[in-house]
Every structure is written in C-alpha cells, then in structure tokens.
Amino acid sequence: MTIDDIEALFEQPFNDLLHRAHLAHRAHFDPNKVQLSTLLSIKTGGCPEDCGYCPQSVHHGSAGETLLDLEEVVAAARTARESGATRFCMGAAWRGPKTRDLEPVLKMVAAVHALGLETCATLGLLRDGQAEQLAAAGLDYYNHNLDTSPEFYGSIISTRRYEDRLDTLARVRAAGLKVCCGGIVGMGEGRRDRAGLIAVLSALDPQPESVPINMLVRVPGTPLADGPSLEPLEFVRTIAVARIALPKSVVRLSAGREGMDDALQALCFFAGANSIFYGDKLLTTANPDARRDQRLLEQLGMTPAPHEDMTAP
Q1: 180 catalytic, yes or no?
Q2: pLDDT tens, 28-38?
Q3: 54 is catalytic
Q4: Which is the catalytic residue, given 51, 171, 218, 268?
Q5: Tell me: the pLDDT tens digits for 244-254?
Q6: Catalytic residue among 78, 87, 95, 120, which?
Q7: Catalytic residue among 20, 171, 180, 237
Q8: Is 268 a catalytic residue?
Q9: Which of 36, 182, 259, 264 has its CB surrounded by the most CB atoms within 10 Å?
C-alpha cells in the first residue's frame, strides 16, 4: 500500500474504518485472544542517542546503570510466566551492543528460552554477525522500532539515521529471526507521518510479525514532555489502519496504556490490537496494574493465549 492509500484509510468515517479493520482482524486472528508480554530493562539509562522521547538518554540527564545479573533476569522471566505472560522481552539502553555487552545477554536469552517463553530483545543497532549469535542462543524476535515516518524522523532523533534502523532490520531477517518493529505516535507528527510509518512497515518484505504501536509517554526532562497530546480516537484510527495494512502481524498495544481508560483500550482491541505489555512497568515508565488488565480482559471475554494459538478458528 502507498502512503496515499494509507492516508485515505485514516480519512474514512470512524465506523467504516473500524468495521473494515475488525473484519481484517477476524480473517487472520481469533478476536477474543490476546498475547500477554512482559518487558524488562536489563540495562537502564546512559544511552548516547538523543531520541527526544526517551528518558534513558544521556542528553536528557540519564546516568547509566549496570547490566542486570543473569539470576535477576531469570527470576523476572519466571515470575512473568507464572503471571500468565508467554513472551518475555529484554531491553538494554545502548546505541548497539559491543562484543563484551552481547556475551552476557546471550546467556540471558538462552536461560529465558529454556523456560519455554517466547524471547525478544531490543539492544539497539546490530553489527554483522550479532543477529546470528542471538538466533543461536534461542532468540525468537528482535525489536527495533522505526519510531515515525522518514520525513519526521529528523525532528525526533539526530544521532541515528533512518537507514541505520533499516540496516539492522535487514540483519535480523538475514539471521532468520522474526521482526518486531513499530513506532510511537503523539510526538507532534501529523496524520501523514503516521501513515508514512505504516507505509514503510507494510512495505517490508516480509512484513513484521510483531508491530508495537506506542502512545508517547511524556516524561519530564525530555524534549517532548510538554507537547500536545494525541486525540484518543486518532490513536484508535492508527491501530485500525495498522491492522488493515499489516493483516497478519500481531499488533501490540504498547506504551501509554497507563493513561488509557478501559473503553479506549476496548476500542483498540476491536480495531485489531491483540497483544499488550503485561506488568506494572515497561522499560522505565508505568504500565497498568496486572489485576486491572485481568479485570478488563474478563469484562471483554478475552482470553490470554500464546502467539501460536491466536490464529482465526
């Protein structure tokens, strides 16, 4: 789909857009199943990148912490599994891992994989050979978001090129890993930028198996802390358009849920979202209490399920 095609989807009447998105969702997924994923920051802060949304950047006053011990990561993964999560993602605030950084992460990946969880990592830019090492350790997915459209990207980040991100995604694919790639909305971009992001994602061949859509969390001290918020129904439109353009991808309702009421999240599920981050914290920002999520899913008649059990009946 071209950017004009995708922008035209955004312009449809709300009910027509949601109807089309829900039909696309039902064609490929059970609409009453959702995957629960848990995200753990294994190395927080001190990142040299200047991403305007990120509280982990040294440009915004963040000091780096040390990498978590293997035992801490395994304990967190075990707790996530016992709480119902079937996917465990490990994130590190690096521009990209050096060899000495990657070695302990490979042990973490192998240990989490051994617990029977779907594994994901987000470590920044990858060099030649690193994706293959992660795959050999048992990694299922590599997350590397494009964040926004190519045209708006320079307004948010100056230390990393859009092409750098695409190069990492190519390395991930070449290593046989599945791709987790999405973006952030509410950063001051226009609707055409949201369409542009989805156009780039939909043009990837193959399309990403996993597409996180994040609502910007405005963190004090970051350049985007005081910008205008995105209208909630525009966020729902973004989920719906992503579902239509990426019909077989798991669309992940990611950061920003702490500020969403149950009705807004229900609309997002109807529009095609079928995964949430589950647990009280994301990398550094708050996430809804697990009991709140359990109540919401129960009210909606939705059942947690692993990825392989989510396809349409």
Answers
A1: yes
A2: 999 999 999 99
A3: yes
A4: 51
A5: 999 999 999 98
A6: 120
A7: 180
A8: no
A9: 182
